[in-house]
Amino acid sequence: MNKKYIDIRNVAIIAHVDHGKTTLVDGLLKVTGQLKKFETDRVLDNLELEREKGITIKAKNASIFYKNHKINIIDTPGHSDFGGEVERVLGMADSSLLIVDAVEGPMPQTRFVLAKSLKLGHKPIVVINKIDREFADPDKVLNEVFDLFDELGANSEQLDFPVVYASAKLNYATLKVDKVGTELQKFLQENQGYSLEPLLDLIIQHVPSASTEDKNNQTLQMQIMNLDYDEYVGRIGVGRIFQGSLKKGDLIEIYKNETGEIQKGKVVKIIGFEGLNRIELEIAYSGDVVGIVGVEDIKIGDTIGIPGNVIPGPRIEIEEPTVSMYFLVNDSPFAGKEGKFITSRHLRERLLKETLTNLSIRVIEDSERKDRFEVQGRGDLQLALLAETLRREGYELQLSKPEVIIKIDENNKKYEPYEIVVIDVPEIYTGNIIQELNRRKGIMESLETFSHGTSRIVYTIPTRSLIGFRSFLITESRGTAAFSSRFSHYDVFLGQISNRVNGVLVSMIDGVAVAYALWQLEERGKIFIEPGTKVYKGMIIGEHSREGDLEVNPCKEKKLTNVRASGSDEAIRLTPPTKLNLEQAIEYIEDDELVEVTPLNIRLRKKYLDPNERKKMSRILAK
User: Fold this and answer.
1) In what order do the strands lie in the sheet containing 289-293?
2) How far apart are CA 311 and CA 294, in angstroms?
3) Those residues with Cβ within 8 angstroms of residue 180's Cβ, 6 or more apart along the chain or in another chain
4) Cα 589 from chain centroid?
């Protein structure tokens, strides 16, 4: 098929976490034949962490062919911590599909991504998804979406948005809804012939065409919006051709987004997308999304043009980071035993490499200490997943407690970031959750109780108050709460906020933990390790049941005698230890503690392993 005469539509998929965005892409790929019905679901979530967490982390694109049209689909992250991905890739699209859950309605991230789309002039198509869910109320959700459009300043054309009602899971879409919930499920089981084609037809009808003859005859302008890497060809710059055409072997000039310099280059290879596959192209035309090979140091935001006539694209603006964390070289007694990359040089190179493809991450080198790097991002989840990625790549490192980035004005007044938090939780748990949010200096915006027994709590709260809150929420709600948040604004610094009340159990010796010692320590608090775990002096092995830290001996053996009696020899029955994953560990620690991260283990430790040094430093800080 001659690519020049294919009518192209570029559309971004935007949604809150878990509103069915990636499942909908699967359905569109299946209905157009690019994905077989028996193939893996969530094909665009191809990173291991994305599948484990159930969220999209990296923006990706695929192409489908439908009725002689090529539709480039850009899948964007749904979590606000990865908003930097959303902001730049939306620039490749001419419109967007806003997906909203038919039960939950618009959520914090819905507001964030929709605001970005409207600002770019998109006229979104609203997809009210999951209408097969029990308690689905598409009419109510549609009114909430309209109110959100109006609140975000949408113009009259944007307010006149088309609506599709869908169940991405069941591959069903309709322009007019008459059945929802279990009634719809039963209807679809008894009837055949439904599909997602109504949505595809609406995309062709509503999304502006990206390919025109006029633009093909104009001077080349292509802007890089994403980066990829191939071990055979090196760095791949992925972007959209806004006008003109590009041939394999063309000499080009690159306008550097950061410095404004002009660099010369040559197009070695052009990579196109068909379904989930990559194909090599001889020529690419205006409107298409392609990757180019040949410019090794190409970066996001760079613009490509013909020699002597480069037309710079708009500068890509990324919202400022709000949270920072120190990534340190591992210096624990177990350092170097489990990882492949253990030096400060390894860590520095890897962190700087991350900044090339992730514009929302910043790395600041410490002028005083060469063994640590301040990494700034949009949230603690983003930084935790970066650390998890490094761990799986074979790196050993240590992490400090996340801290918010404070701004100080000319009058030396402090300001800190605030977030809007939305929690959906069964009504019986709302009291304790509200009490905890108030203790963390949050301000309630609204409290709504639904007919199906769920309450929605909306709070404005300092970002630092949320560090450690997720763990509390999971425990308090027995895992039933749905939590989401987004950055709101900077406001006055609220002073001291205590997150963790209890102290920790700290090992006083090096050795191997034994069952008898841990059994004896259970009355002192909650244990984090199992018998047989190697420990070192200063390592945290559990949570104290009271305030203040307690030094303990987890390696103490039972004294043996020659006397045996059934009454005196008690059977040791240990409570299963509380295992913390990396995100939970980062939320848990305090300022004087670190998380030790290796490919095999996640350990908690004190910054100063020696107890005398800890006491000395606490006295200094107290002054």
Assistant:
1) 262-266, 251-255, 303-305, 221-230, 234-243, 289-293, 269-274, 277-281
2) 20
3) 102, 131, 132, 136, 137, 138
4) 21
Confidence class for position 81, pLDDT limits 50, 70, 90 = low
CATH of 213-305 given 2.40.50.140, 2.40.30.10, 3.20.20.70, 3.30.70.330: 2.40.30.10
pLDDT of 359 over the 50 cut: yes
Distance CA 2, CA 209 (A): 17
User: Phi and psi (nearest 5°) for 223?
Assistant: -115, 135
Query: Computed over its alpha carbons, how large is the radius of gyration of the chain?
Result: 27
DSSP 359: T
Q: Indicate the pTM of the whole model.
A: 0.77
Percent of the chain with pLDDT over 90: 27
Q: Are 525 and 596 in contact (CB under 8 A)?
A: no
Q: What is the pLDDT of residues 161-194, one digit of tens each?
A: 999 998 888 888 888 888 888 888 888 877 777 7
* pLDDT tens digits, 199-214: 999 999 998 887 766 6
Please report the pLDDT score of residue 606 as a whole number.
94
**Tokens describing residue 404:** 């918010």
pLDDT, tens digit, for every residue of 131-158? 988 888 899 999 999 998 988 888 989 9
* In contact, 307 and 253? CB cutoff 8 Å: yes
Least confident window among 218-222, 447-451, 604-608: 447-451
The domain limits of the chain are: 3-206, 213-305, 407-492, 504-622
In this prediction, residues 106-132 reach a mean pLDDT of 85
- Which of 399, 382, 394 lies closest to 327 in space, CA to CA? 399
* Cα(384)–Cα(389) distance, integer angstroms: 9
Compute how many other C-beta atoms are within 10 angstroms of the C-beta atom of residue 278: 15
Q: CATH 2.40.50.250: does it fit domain 504-622?
A: yes
Q: Which residues contact 336 (CB under 8 A, 6 or more apart)?
A: 330, 342, 396
The tokens describing 554, both together, are 């987890």
CATH number for 3-206 (one of 3.20.20.370, 2.40.10.10, 1.10.357.10, 3.40.50.300): it is 3.40.50.300
CB atoms within 10 A of CB 524: 15
